[in-house]
Amino acid sequence: MRSFRGFLFAFVCASAVVLAAAQPAPVRVDMAAGQLLVDGKPYVILGGELGNSSAGTAAQADEILPRMAHMHLNTVLMPVAWEQIEPAEGKFDFAILDHWIDEARAQNMHLVPLWFGSWKNAFSEYAPAWVKADTKRFPRARTANGAPTEILSTLGPETLRADSRAFAALTAHLKEKDAAQQTVLMIQVENEVGMLGAERDRSEDANRAFAGAVPAQLHEKLTAREGHFSPELAAQFHPEGKTWREVFGDAASEVFMAWRYAMFVDAVVEAGKKQYDLPMYMNAQLPAYMERAGDYPSGGPHPYFLDVYRATAQHIDFYSPDIYWPEFAYWVNRYRAAGLPVFVPEAKLEAAPYNALYAYGAVQAFGFCPFGIDSLKAENPLIAQVYGALESLGPSLAEAQHANQTRGIVLYANSARGTQTVTLGGYLFQASLSRVWNTGALESQNGAMLLMTNGTDEFLAIGTGLTVKISRDPDTDARVAGIASIEEVTRSGSDWKVVTRLNGDQSNQGRQLTLDSQAVRIYRVRLYAAER
Fold it and tell me: Which of 20, 175, 257, 498 is the most exposed place for a label (fewest CB within 10 A)?
């Protein structure tokens, strides 16, 4: 009997070990490496965000997701509206979301739900009708003249309770439905929060809070980080003060709103993570040139006052920029400089193929998502070509990103910059927009390239529309560089297949790399360095 019990105990323990090993590792963000880890391995999101009204029915999943898979997307960002999952208070319906998850699995894709709860683009149009109709229980933010807005106030305790309860119900359902498969990678909580039309909420409760002292905990945390502020916060911070105006000067109203939104959304995230501990992030609508707070959503998590969020919210994993303005590189680098992993949940569709190559190459983004990607109807649009090329790299892209062996270049004809140079592997790569050789006319108005190496003199260049001159980096040594060979390649199983060997006129007699101006292609470039 004793030996049987011993055998049974050993069998149960071994079975538990096997079952534990079979469970996927939790999806998480490695903040130090700037990578998304899925089942313990780096995962690069080749993504796209759907239009706001593209995920409201099950039938839309059947039409959209196969098209997205055909375009080489591996992840789709899709709205999940509070009004849809809780049409009557306390009555939840996840049938449509479940169908999207099932269809995503069928297409071997992942999803990132966008929680359109209390706010979407500052306003509250995705809240259920029973919330919008009860302004006593769910108060609105008010303008300077006291008029109510279509924006739920951050100071409504019932609003916070209802939003948190609905979000917790969503995450609990996702855990039950999907924890074993991990179709859902992470969740965006709310969307582009902030006060529009005024710098801050002027409701009675908001005025009362604004007239008081800055909370001691916020004051202490910011004071401890004073030397690490953004320039915008550093210019306004006066730690000797007590009230919002005294401490934050002209930025007081926007900082106050940042604190209020950070408090509210962090509580929603906390409620959700108690049910299912997925990575959860916030996105931000960025200020356009010369805009004032209130012209853009005042208090959102954009770089000016992101320190307020990070001092207040302990459960939000990271913050991401929605970039529609021309200054893509500027904005994405503002978030990277803040020590955040780079993920772009929304980007201008027309510029997406070029900015994607820059994002993955230059700032080692773990994901990039053009907005409204489901509106593309062309058979093989340029962004699909970008994603197809990146897909062919497999795990080597994430490995090269982690080893700092990727670079990115993007150039536009309407930009003041005519060339751009990057250094990689001891070589300088100077890019300019390609021109017709006998007329000098631009072959394309835009050009971009992702450059990658494995640490040798062999490089992969993915891109379009650029002419690239290559030289030895003088900071490496005094040798001269030359092109040994250029080949257009495609992936064939685990190997690369040579499509064309480029030389002669196609390489300007071996002096430059010229990327096709009409399509995204992959080039394998072998270089050599010789003594002078």
Answer: 20
